[in-house]
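sry for the spam today, last one i promise. C-alpha cells for design, 178 residues
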C-alpha cells in the first residue's frame, strides 16, 4: 500500500511513520488491488489527532480519532478502518452472491449444536444439513457462506463429501474410499 504521512504541529518522526506503515500494511490482505493511504498526524494543545484516508479497490474509507496519545489514536483509527473495510467487503460479497444463479441456503453448511457444554472428555454432537450438488457448485457455495468448509452430497456418486479452503488459498475436496 502506498502511504503518505503528513505531520502538523508535530516534529516528523521516522518511528511514527514506520508505525503507521506497519499498521496499514495489515489491510493489504483485505484489499484485492493496490490502494493509497494518506495519513495526517497532528497535535492541537493536548489532543493528538490521527486522520487516515484510504482510496482504491473501488472504495473510499475515512477515519479520524483523537486521544491524549498519538500511538493510541493511530491504533483506534486503524480499528475503525478495519471495521469499515470488512463491512464494505461483506456488502460487496452479498451483492455479488445475489447476482449469481446459485443462491446459498441459510442452512447449508452451518452446524446445529445439540449439546451446548463442551467439558473435557464430553462429546459435542452436531448435525449438518447438506444437499446434493457437484464439487464446483460446492466451491461457489463455500465462497457465498464464507466458511472454512462445506459438507455436501456429491450428485455424481451420492456420497457425502467435504470441500474446504486450504491455507494456500486453493480448495480441497475430501471423498470417502469405497
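last one done:
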Amino acid at each position: 500500500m502506498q502511504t503518505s504521512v503528513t505531520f502538523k504541529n508535530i516534529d516528523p518522526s521516522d518511528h511514527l511513520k514506520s508505525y503507521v506503515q506497519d499498521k496499514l500494511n495489515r489491510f493489504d490482505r483485505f484489499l484485492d488491488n493496490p490502494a493509497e493511504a494518506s495519513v495526517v498526524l497532528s497535535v492541537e494543545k493536548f489532543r493528538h489527532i490521527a486522520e487516515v484516508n484510504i482510496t482504491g479497490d473501488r472504495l473510499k474509507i475515512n477515519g479520524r480519532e483523537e486521544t491524549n496519545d498519538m500511538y493510541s489514536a493511530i491504533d483506534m483509527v486503524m480499528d475503525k478502518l478495519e471495521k469499515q473495510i470488512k463491512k464494505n467487503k461483506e456488502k460487496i460479497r452479498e451483492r455479488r452472491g445475489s447476482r449469481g444463479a446459485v443462491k446459498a441456503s441459510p442452512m447449508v453448511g452451518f452446524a446445529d449444536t445439540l449439546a451446548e457444554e463442551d467439558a473435557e472428555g464430553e462429546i459435542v454432537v452436531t448435525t449438518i444439513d447438506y444437499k446434493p450438488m457437484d464439487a464446483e457448485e460446492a466451491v461457489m457455495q463455500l465462497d457465498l457462506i464464507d466458511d472454512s468448509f462445506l459438507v455436501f452430497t456429491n450428485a455424481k456418486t451420492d456420497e457425502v463429501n467435504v470441500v474446504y479452503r486450504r491455507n494456500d488459498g486453493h480448495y480441497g475436496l475430501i471423498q470417502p474410499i469405497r
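DSSP finds three helices and ten strands in the chain. ok im logging off now
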